[in-house]
Amino acid sequence: MPSVLVAMSGGVDSSVAACLLHEQGYAVLGSHLSLVHLEGVEHGCCGPSARRDAAETARIAGFPFEICDLSDEFERTVIADFIGELGSGRTPNPCARCNGEIKFGAFLRRADRLGIDLVATGHYVRAVRDDRGSWQLWRGADRAKDQSYMLHMLGQRELSRALFPVGGLIKTDTRAIAERFGLPVATKPDSQELCFAPAGDAGGFVRSSAGSLVREGGEVVDPEGRVLAEHDGTFAFTVGQRRGLRVATGSPMYVTELDAASNRVVVGPRELLTKRGLVADRVSWVAGGPPDEGPFEADVRIRYRGSEVPAVISPGTDATIEVEFRSPQRSVAPGQSVVVYDRDRILGGARIVHAFR
Question: Which of 121, 154, 124, 158 is CA-nearest to residue 139?
Fold first, then answer.
């Protein structure tokens, strides 16, 4: 059987993934990724208890285990991108960035250095090889836990080396399998925190680690430019946001635009959030290219927990796409991902640059 390097966060999904592969006869090496250094602080999948849970799973199952320090790569790619996106007035997507740069970038390169055949994670997606020998990425069987949006950047090289043992399961089955293996993480809650920000406090992380983004005297303005309030940095806002604006106009107001260069937040009524389409860059296609050179129809999702909507996608010649929704959509946030679907199959995705009306 092939050897496999399994990314173990200490959660139930990656723990079950590793144990299933070990049970199936793969030569498993469990690997807990050390991505940030906050000694003694619990912070999602990277804290002390997560390391202990991952190590205990390996001990119970009987396969070797390591702690892999990828903090330098994480700092250089994910955190730098997070700060850079905020500084440009965009809403970053660090989990997608981590999957592309770390879990299927640096981690896969580590497998190569160790002479290990495959890598595996606990993501709820499925990799399927079609009749022509091409790899396809499909949603997880559990639609409530499907993580395909965050893995849209995977291509043929990554999918040919990747295993997703829980992708065909529903979450309750995953927990039942953890109980069968006698794992202490069987009932462990899912982590929803930003792993590099203690207690998931992204604003606090920015204030302590990227002080240049804190800029006092910023203006919150209406569409006509009238000043309604002040703020200390556009990093604290995202398009579509309603709470925390500290404006009183007698009617609900939403963030409609972020101008980081002038440190200005534009707010307006809900109808101004509605957009006809978007332009995106950093395009990645699972098959290596779009399904058609010209415009084609597919479904797209513009936020992780959003729904797919029909659209016309026009590929550009410079790794960009233009997406025109069949029905206008609200709260299209630059910096987030737009992911393209053909039913349950993921065609690819890109970073939203701007929306248009």
Answer: 124
Residues 159-196 pLDDT 10s: 999 999 999 999 999 999 999 999 999 999 987 768 88
Per-residue pLDDT, 40 = 54
Q: What is the CATH number of domain 3-199?
A: 3.40.50.620
Give, in degrees to the nearest 5, the angle at Cα 53 between 40 and 60.
Answer: 145
Residues contacting residue 176 through CB under 8 Å, at least 6 positions apart? none
| CA-to-CA dists, residue 133 to 8, 95, 159, 221, 287, angstroms | 29, 29, 12, 54, 11
Instruction: Label residue 217 exposed, middle or buried (CB < 10 Å: 0-12, 13-18, 19+).
Output: exposed
Q: Which CATH superfamily is domain 215-272 in?
A: Adenine nucleotide alpha hydrolases-like domains (2.30.30.280)
pLDDT score for 49: 87
Q: Which CATH class is domain 274-356?
A: mainly beta
Contact 301, 308 (CB under 8 A): yes
Between the two ends of the chain, the Cα-to-Cα distance in Å is 54
Whether pTM > 0.85 for this model: the answer is yes
Question: Mapping DSSP to helix (H, G, I), strand (E, B) and coil, where does residue 183 land?
Answer: coil
Query: What is the domain partition of the chain in residue ranges?
Result: 3-199, 215-272, 274-356
Could you tell me which of 64, 165, 155 has the C-alpha nearest to residue 104? 155
CA distance 271 to 255: 11
d(CA 303, CA 188): 26
Active site residue 98: yes
Average pLDDT, stretch 107-113?
Answer: 97
Q: 97 is written with which tokens?
A: 């960035």
Residue tagged active-site, from 19, 68, 95, 98: 98
pLDDT tens for residues 299-323? 999 999 999 999 999 999 889 999 9
Does the annotation count 68 as an active-site position?
no
Tokens of 270: 């809900």
- Counted residue by residue, the chain has a size of 357
